[in-house]
Automatic annotation (TrEMBL):
The lineage of its organism: Bacteria, Pseudomonadati, Thermodesulfobacteriota, Desulfuromonadia, Geobacterales. SUPFAM superfamilies: NAD(P)-binding Rossmann-fold domains (SSF51735). Signal peptide: none annotated. One of its GO terms (biological process) is L-glutamate catabolic process. Pfam families: ELFV_dehydrog. SMART domains: ELFV_dehydrog. PANTHER family: GLUTAMATE DEHYDROGENASE, GLUTAMATE_PHENYLALANINE_LEUCINE_VALINE_L-TRYPTOPHAN DEHYDROGENASE C-TERMINAL DOMAIN-CONTAINING PROTEIN. GO terms for molecular function: glutamate dehydrogenase (NAD+) activity. This is Amino acid dehydrogenase. Keywords: Oxidoreductase. Residues 612-886 form the Glutamate/phenylalanine/leucine/valine/L-tryptophan dehydrogenase C-terminal domain.
């Protein structure tokens, strides 16, 4: 035999030995899952022995696939995942041999990754595509046999999604495997996008191996699989095999993982075991704890803290920072607060122990445990001293704030396992404990409730000023680190002011004011990753909605979820509304979730849905703004429906308030000249007035940058924020001016653009200014004087605030002292929330079918109410101004709101204590007067008043009577009536 033939025979024998060893050591399903990669299997069989000299063997490395054979050592999977973390994994398979590789002490690890994610658009476009009939039949049979609880009505849709995402996986996998992943996906959907379960393997030789199922809707995009595997490792669970799919459902990604694990201590990972409870807590916590956070890197991966406690520490940090920094940002910046907890993990853990003693439903005798640990924690915080006097004072303040947070929280969903955000409902009395050093910049009133929300991607507050409360949900997207710090510093104050303004605004309806404001952290995303930003936005809003429902869905007044310890124990009717960055599909989702979870308001939790009054479609907010403008300008001698006048406004043609204000004015005011329009995309300045026809073309369809510069009049110009270009390191912005010779285009620097854009709102003259968009506090105490020309003439005679808090209170006072009439936001733009209130009434009194059948009539009735409410207040403000010239319109507006809200509070308490009064004839007339005419006129709807919850009837009565006492009242005559009644009762005729 020649040397060559001997070598060939030796290689053949080695391959046979390798093939036999692989068949013995790897689960049979490995070879099924790899049958589409015969070359990789052949290479593994041939080159297995090289792993005695090399740490890894590349079996495939293509654009869309990576397959590695590795000598299994601690950290090998982490190393690979770290190297490929920028690539979007669509499929991952991890497999291990049972015994060491021949000639080595370590086992074999196979890592297979595919990078072939399908886009949402591809899934949506494939609605007519389906798996072959043979596959469909065998998978359906497997589902019926192994998973009889699977809802077969959804089978074809779900199978189509998998087929479109990964046809190869469906083709090569056994029917039971496909059935298993279909069920996993369905269970994830049933549980709101987060599902975790375990089953012990029954196959012989499994050796206490358990199969863990984990499904996550819209999972974190970076390092998620790495984080999941870190959890298994940290909890001493060896992952022998793993199969992970990430698919698109047409809206966002979905992670579906099946892990075959063994406890390293030899025990059984069974449902109901302590080990599985810890695993469930930590895997669920991956939705809340970012791998980029310092708490994860410094406290969790080092073993100092569990993932749950690290998340709680991050929540402590966000709460303390946002409550302390709005008044003292230099002392309590995000780094200062975070470092206080990171530098002293023992205090963070002590605070976490206190929190658990108060809210863990599994703790026996919570009161005693809490009191004991509270005394320990208070002593530790009070005696905190490292010898650094200034730093110690700052950190003691932070820890005291955290203590106040824990002791004033009344309920939380922290111990709800299937959650994607945290919610903490607080007693607002904690603000008094913080002291005036931290509340002096807030309105001097105490809210009714404060709820803090925390998520992996952001945090925020819901602040309400009455029991039944409503107000919009605003999400502020922070695209840079500076955005995030600035918004986080001021978020609590901005939320508080907006909620209080909303409370003043809500004086005409039965709901008090509230606001939900959340900051979304998108600072780590690149400009090209806007789809990831949208997914992150949905994840944040979906998670917060779930957390909201965890604590506010009640039964007999007590939180319904058994994992929520409820110290408040009252029903809380909180109505939300869409605001900044709330998309239509999320509006519908929130309403559906509320109804499915059994929240007391059902779909009435969120306004402007299909079964509602879309604000933008009907221009409900702008209806009130324009009515205020009409009455205010008449006070100045201008009939806007007949006379010429000039207008400037902020907010674009595609915005709800600005767009509809322009629409209404173009319909009613043929002689209006719109001298300035300014939105986030562009500014149009045209002294002769923006062309009505061109505005009409883009109104409520496109942003201002779609306005054609060719339609400008001579002397008019546009500057564009969008469509910038770069020359070297300089960013340039387009400016187009209409001259006598035609259009002249130039490109200006960022500084030039910012200066001109920022000056326009102050310098362009007009009769009327309507701020209907833009950031709060644009005009403030430091720049209000720029609103006047050199000769002291104001650049607008009247301001009607269509946007909230565009002008600060201090600036309002100074502008009014100079003769400008200002109709503040709480009065001028109140009609949007009034309209939303009538949506809730429709939800309470009409079926969806009835509402849609009578929608146009119902909406017409509501618009009539809006015109009346706006007109009543505008006329009363101006009447009181004439009666007392020294009063400012904004002061009168505040006093009206205060009067009405005081009436409401007293009347609500009165009717709550006498629930039988509401349906007596005289009171029933007041209820009907508050409602749209269709309810009062149609007997079948009118009879349903008795179905309204007693709390709502009391609130409607209090609102209608409380407001009419002010709008329709004659204070002198009423005082005389009061005296006569007193005399009649106490000095009867003899």
């Amino acid at each position: 035999m020649t040397a060559a033939s001997a070598a060939s025979k030796s290689q053949s024998a080695e391959r046979a030995e390798n093939r036999f060893w692989l068949r013995e050591q790897l689960n049979p399903y490995f070879f099924i899952a790899m049958k589409d990669e015969p070359e990789a299997l052949g290479l593994l069989t041939r080159e297995l022995g090289t792993l005695r000299h090399n740490r890894r063997l590349i079996l495939a490395d293509r654009d869309k696939a990576l397959i590695l054979a590795i000598v299994n050592q601690p950290g090998t999977l982490y190393d690979t995942l770290r190297r490929i973390h920028e690539r979007e994994i669509s499929y991952a398979m991890i497999a291990h041999s049972d015994d060491p590789i021949p000639g080595l002490d370590q086992n074999l690890e196979i890592q297979r990754f595919e990078f072939d994610r399908r886009s949402n658009e591809e899934i949506l476009a494939g609605k007519d595509v389906g798996a072959p009939i043979g596959i469909r039949r065998t998978v359906a049979a497997a589902l019926r046999k192994y998973y009889p609880d699977f809802d077969m009505a959804d089978f074809d849709r779900l199978l189509r999604i998998f087929w479109l995402n990964n046809e190869n996986y469906v083709r090569i996998s056994p029917p039971r495997r496909v059935a298993q992943v279909l069920r996993l996906y369905q269970e994830g959907n049933r549980r709101g996008g987060l599902y975790l379960d375990v089953e012990e393997m029954e196959e012989s030789g499994a050796g206490h191996e358990s199969r863990v199922f984990f499904a996550v809707g819209n999972p974190p995009q970076q390092d998620f699989l790495l984080q999941v595997m870190e959890v298994f490792n940290r909890l001493e669970l060896g992952v022998n095999r793993a199969y992970c799919l990430t698919i698109s459902n047409g809206v966002h990604p979905y992670f579906l993982g099946t892990f075959y694990v063994r406890r390293r201590d030899g025990g059984v990972l069974a449902r109901g075991s302590e080990a599985f409870s810890r695993l469930k807590a930590e895997l669920s916590n991956t939705q809340l704890l970012a791998t980029q956070s310092l708490a994860y890197r410094e406290l969790v991966t080092t073993g100092l803290m569990s993932g749950e406690d690290a998340t709680l520490t991050n929540a402590f940090t966000a709460f303390c920072h946002s409550n302390l920094a709005h008044n003292q940002p230099d002392r309590f910046g995000p780094d200062d607060v975070r470092d206080a907890f990171l530098a002293h993990p023992e205090i963070a853990l002590q605070l976490a122990r206190l929190f658990r003693a108060r809210f863990d439903p599994a703790v026996d005798d919570r009161t005693a445990a809490h009191e004991t640990i509270l005394a320990e924690t208070q002593k530790e915080v009070l005696t905190y001293n490292t010898g650094h006097r200034h730093l110690d004072e700052v950190r003691r303040t932070i820890f005291r704030c955290c203590l106040a947070f824990i002791t004033h929280t009344l309920k939380t969903n922290f111990f709800v396992r299937e959650k994607q955000a945290l919610a903490f409902r607080l007693d607002p009395a904690y603000l008094a404990e913080l002291g005036t050093d931290f509340t002096a910049d807030l309105p001097p009133v105490m809210p009714f409730r404060i709820t803090f929300f925390y998520s992996r991607y952001g945090f925020g507050y819901h602040i309400g000023f009455s029991d039944i409360a409503r107000g919009g949900w605003r999400t502020v997207i922070c695209r840079t680190a500076d955005d995030l710090i600035t918004n986080a510093n001021t978020l609590f104050r901005e939320n508080f002011v907006l909620a209080h303004t909303q409370h003043l605004k809500n004086k005409d309806i039965y709901e008090g004011g509230s606001k939900l404001v959340v900051a979304l952290d998108a600072s780590d995303l690149k400009a090209k990753e806007r789809q990831l930003e949208t997914w992150r936005l949905y994840k944040l809003q979906y998670g917060i909605t779930g957390a909201f429902l965890d604590i506010f869905t009640t039964e007999n007044g007590v939180a319904k979820h058994p994992a929520v310890v409820d110290y408040y124990r009252e029903d809380e009717p909180i109505e939300l509304g869409p605001d900044e960055n709330m998309h239509d599909n999320m509006i519908e989702t929130i309403a559906t979730m509320s109804k499915r979870r059994g929240y007391m308001l059902g779909i009435g939790i969120m306004s402007s849905k299909k079964v509602g009054i879309n604000h933008k479609e009907y221009g409900v907010t702008s209806t009130g703004v324009v009515k205020f403008a009409e009455i205010t300008m008449k006070e100045l001698g201008i009939d806007i429906c007949k006379d010429p006048f000039t207008l400037k406004l902020t907010g674009g043609p595609n915005g709800d308030v600005a767009g509809n204000a322009m629409r209404i004015m173009l319909e009613r005011c043929p002689k209006v000249k719109i001298a300035l329009i300014l939105d986030g995309t562009a500014a149009v300045c045209d002294p002769a007035g923006a062309d009505h026809g061109e505005l009409g073309r883009i109104l409520l369809k496109q942003d201002l940058d779609a306005f054609a510069p060719s339609m400008l009049h001579t002397g008019g110009f546009m500057i564009f924020r969008t469509g910038s270009r770069r020359e070297g390191v300089r960013e340039l912005f387009r400016r187009v001016e209409k001259t006598g010779k035609g259009l002249v285009e130039e490109w200006i620097s960022l500084d030039e653009f910012s200066k001109e854009y920022g000056e326009l709102v102050f310098t362009v003259p007009a009769d009327l200014f309507i701020p209907a968009g833009g950031r709060p506090e644009t005009i403030d105490k430091d720049n209000w004087e720029r609103f006047f020309l050199a000769d002291g003439t104001p650049t607008a005679r009247a301001i009607v605030e269509g946007a909230n808090s565009f002008i600060t209170p201090a600036a309002r006072i100074e502008l009014q002292k100079k003769g400008i009439i200002i109709m503040r936001d709480a009065s001028a733009n109140k009609c949007g929330v009034i309209s939303s209130s009538y949506e809730i009434i429709a939800n309470l009194l009409l079926s969806e079918k009835e509402f849609l059948e009578h929608k146009e009539r119902y909406v017409d009735d509501v618009l009539e109410i809006l015109e009346k409410r706006a007109g009543d207040e505008a006329r009363l403000i101006l009447r009181r101004r004439r009666e007392q010239p020294g009063l400012l319109c904004t002061e009168i507006s505040d006093s009206l709101s205060t009067e009405i809200n005081a009436n409401y509070a007293r009347l609500f308490k009165f009717f709550q204590g006498r629930p039988g009064l509401s349906l007596q004839p005289i009171f029933r007339r007041a209820v009907l007067a508050h409602l749209p005419k269709i309810i009062a006129d149609e007997p079948r709807f009118r009879r349903r008043l008795a179905q309204l919850p007693p709390k709502y009837l009391s609130a409607i009565l209090a609102a209608e009577i409380g407001s009419s006492m002010v709008y329709k009242g004659d204070r002198e005559a009423e005082f005389e009536d009061l005296i006569r009644l007193h005399l009649t009762r106490n000095f009867p005729a003899t």
